[in-house]
Amino acid sequence: MTPTNGSGRGFASLSPEHRREIAKLGGRAAHERGNAHELTAAEGREAGRKGGAAVSKYRDHMAHVGRIGGRRRWRRESQPGDRTVG
Question: Which of 13, 33, 57, 67 has the most neighbouring CB atoms within 10 Å?
Fold first, then answer.
């Protein structure tokens, strides 16, 4: 393991290729043990429906969070010299 940045510790300091290789090994192991689960189209739709229902419970809060993010992004992009033309 050769660190590429930061303090030289942890998974995030590895090169993208090395992280991908480690993740691939984990996925293979999970499939071999039978722990990995791939959703069918119907299961995926149901999961999406449940996630949407959960988020919609807090619609006002989520709208507020989105507005804050939009303002911050607008403020960051409107700084002189930060924007690329094109």
Answer: 13
